[in-house]
């Protein structure tokens, strides 16, 4: 087009940069389009150079990692006590959510859950006594993730607690998780009142043996198939597990009735599962854990295989960097709060449940579950936009987990830290919100983007490994 003709036509602006420029044009009625582009995250030039020079071998490693992840076959194979099956578990060890943390830095809800766990375990009789023991040095703490385990919210696993046992049928590795307590005042949100301990003891004495016998009689349960079905029914199997829990109930109920000789116990168990829409969460989490753990320790890979929070810190691990943690501060979610609570009451994000997002579920599959965004006043179009954006940082698309609204497109699976940095797009997570003080419990639910600092540090850490 001749330059002389340019100003004889209606001008249209394409804005690349701050959206406020387009907003100013919108105010005066000028036609403008905003390009969804962001500059890369701020990391060292040297790290960028190293990553760029090793791009081909990173890609080869990531293809291998994603093949392992997509072929994973998580199955529920039984239940057992934590101390009998979790690697490295011992009487004075407490497992927690998130990256490593000492008692002195633990947030309120995690401290509350530790207090409740020590009372449940019989190591203390009062909260004050439990708190004294927790800080005494006699108790050891370690991340669930370092012991093939995951836990929602505070993630506390005590030695005598019953845990689900999952096996990756394709690769043979195992993972563990406690059973879900339901809503209200519960240990995972930091509550430790007498009713919290009573429910845990009922779960130990009634729920555990009934389910243990049931699964022993049934044989393994294919969780991958159940989760795939649940996505088609409106779940994203992180914050919404209603369909998945219902599907599991249909699988378990006939065998519970057949195998449980105590009809009262059978009714109690069936009523508990039926009344707890989040029951499946404590299976979707270890299902993702056992899937991702099989892909650990692939040299040069930039794929995230653990993403978690302890209420103080946000941490990730990469397949290509071994057991090294990359940590930054945890943020407070954008949430809808229960009546009487506000963001001032909220603890920063907490829990291992973001393992679901790490495996292409949860916030990455939120387009399959738009009801979740209503937590913060969002819309269906918001849910679709969140998922579409996650494809930008994913290493692959899932071959089994699909989103009906997107013409059954596979969910974005496998967070590639190189793409996160270069595209400046952080993982999207949906989550519950705990009160910042111990003993209170849940105060809301919402969404947030992952903390930026761990991904920048992971990028630098991967570059350092590649440079050796």
Description of the molecule:
The protein has helices at residues 3-6, 19-27, 45-53, 55-71, 82-85, 108-120, 127-134, 194-218, 223-231, 242-259, 263-274, 281-293, 355-358, 380-390, 417-423, 452-467; strands at 13-15, 32-34, 74-81, 93-96, 140-143, 162-168, 174-178, 221-222, 304-310, 313-318, 326-329, 334-337, 350-351, 394-403, 409-415, 428-434, 442-449. With 468 residues, it is α+β, with helices and mostly antiparallel strands. The chain has 3 domains: 3-34, no CATH class; 45-69 and 296-467, Alpha-Beta Complex (v583 fold), CATH 3.90.1700.10; 74-286, Enterococcus faecalis V583 domain (Enterococcus faecalis V583 fold). The chain has a 4-stranded antiparallel β-sheet. Strands 11-10-9-13 form a 4-stranded antiparallel β-sheet. α3 (45-53) crosses α16 (452-467), α6 (108-120) packs across α7 (127-134) and α10 runs antiparallel to α11. It is globular and about 90 Å long. The relative contact order is 0.15.
Keyword list:
16 helices, 19% strand, 468 residues, globular, v583 fold, alpha+beta, 17 strands, single chain, Enterococcus faecalis V583 fold, four-stranded antiparallel β-sheet
- C-alpha-based Rg, rounded: 23 Å
Could you name the ranges where pLDDT drops below 50 across 5 or more consecutive residues?
Answer: none
Considering the protein shown, what is the CATH homologous superfamily of the largest domain?
Enterococcus faecalis V583 domain
Q: What proportion strand? A: 15-25%
The global form is globular
Helix content: 25-40%
Please summarize the sheet with the most strands: 4 strands, antiparallel
Q: From the 3D coordinates, which CATH architecture of the largest domain would you assign?
A: Alpha-Beta Complex
Mean pLDDT: 93
